[in-house]
Amino acid sequence: MSRCRVQRVSAKERHAAIGDGVENGVRGVTMTEVARRSGVHATSLDRRWGSVEDLVLDALLDVSGDTLTVPDTGSLRGDLRAFARLLADYLISPLGTALVRSMSTVEDDSATSDARRSFWLARSKAAGVMIERAAARGDIAADVDPRIVLEMVIAPIHFRRLLTREVVDDRMLDAVVDITIGGLSFPS
Amino acid sequence: MSRCRVQRVSAKERHAAIGDGVENGVRGVTMTEVARRSGVHATSLDRRWGSVEDLVLDALLDVSGDTLTVPDTGSLRGDLRAFARLLADYLISPLGTALVRSMSTVEDDSATSDARRSFWLARSKAAGVMIERAAARGDIAADVDPRIVLEMVIAPIHFRRLLTREVVDDRMLDAVVDITIGGLSFPS
């Protein structure tokens, strides 16, 4: 099978998997259903992805690479507050919910592990611009690690959406951003 | 069936589910296997739990209610740093991994929603003592919300263990605790 043919088939299978994943929640998807929708034999799907969870995760990563825009409000507080709201909305959408639930359950093999790493690297590079701009303006110290700042803001939102399922409102989002910014070292 | 008999059967089924859940990862568990191990008909399990994910979550919540001890080092920084290490270790254990992965995927019905709420309420009440003691000592303002402080510390650990699967080391844990404490309002 040529590389081109593999790519085309893969896209079709991914699309079929995503349809299922988003409509039924990740756990409703079966290889049989994806095979029926994509017209590809279940045994071929098995050979390529190993499990339906891997297939769904692969499909979700494929379409949700650059969903969030990165705000540019002129201040770190404004940027992070706006970004937190975009993320909170995304994580309650069918696609966002399916993606994070799928990412949290999959037992990584080398392929999913690579896909996972690239996904978070691309996301944190894009969003890290907010922190880099703040450092360039002199609002925060130049040696602040953008990764940890982002994690302090986005982790509590993922935590509520995925695990506690508690309300995520503006008050909570602002508190998270304010504590994070308050805890950064400012240039002396 | 008497209440007592229901309780006994439930404990046996839970135990069977946990064995599976922890050994195979949550997605390896089937109602048939739990039925075989517990000696209870799969139809009865279906009636009681609806899905194998609900059964596993119920079982996991049942045994992991009070796994983490709450440190008392004399300072908020010391307490939170020690607690962060305990949590990071727990979340990489088979039981901790199975619990959070299971909690993140289950689509709540009213029973799992109640179990989820009680679980987090009990946990945050127990761990909240660290923040209450700090407020009583005058180390932080009395009106600081213990819940948000805890979330700022524990969410990034869950985020890495569940979603990015990146290394959680002492350096990362200390940075999370230090940013959180630095961002709290101190009494004037």
Provide a concise account of the structure shown:
By secondary structure, chain A is mainly α. The first copy, chain A, is built from 9 helices and no strands.
Describe this structure in words.
- Chains A, B: Keywords: DNA-binding, Transcription, Transcription regulation.
- Chains A, B: This is Putative transcriptional regulator, TetR family protein.
- Chains A, B: InterPro entries: Homeodomain-like_sf, HTH-type_TetR-like_transc_reg, Tet_transcr_reg_TetR-rel_C_sf, TetR_C.
- Two copies of one chain form a homodimer.
- Chain A has about 190 residues and is mainly alpha-helical.
- Chain A folds into two domains: about 5-60, Arc Repressor Mutant, subunit A (Orthogonal Bundle); about 65-185, Tetracycline Repressor, domain 2.
- Helix content of chain A is about 75%, strand content about 0%.
- The first copy, chain A, has nine helices and no strands.
- Chain A has helices at about 5-25, 30-40, 40-50, 50-65, 75-90, 95-105, 110-135, 145-165, 170-185.
- Chain A starts with a helix and ends in a 5-residue tail after the last helix.
- The interface of A and B includes residues 108 and 178 of A.
Overview features:
homodimer; 188 residues; mainly alpha; Arc Repressor Mutant, subunit A; Tetracycline Repressor, domain 2; 9 helices; disordered N terminus; DNA-binding (chains A, B); transcription (chains A, B); transcription regulation (chains A, B); TetR_C (chains A, B)
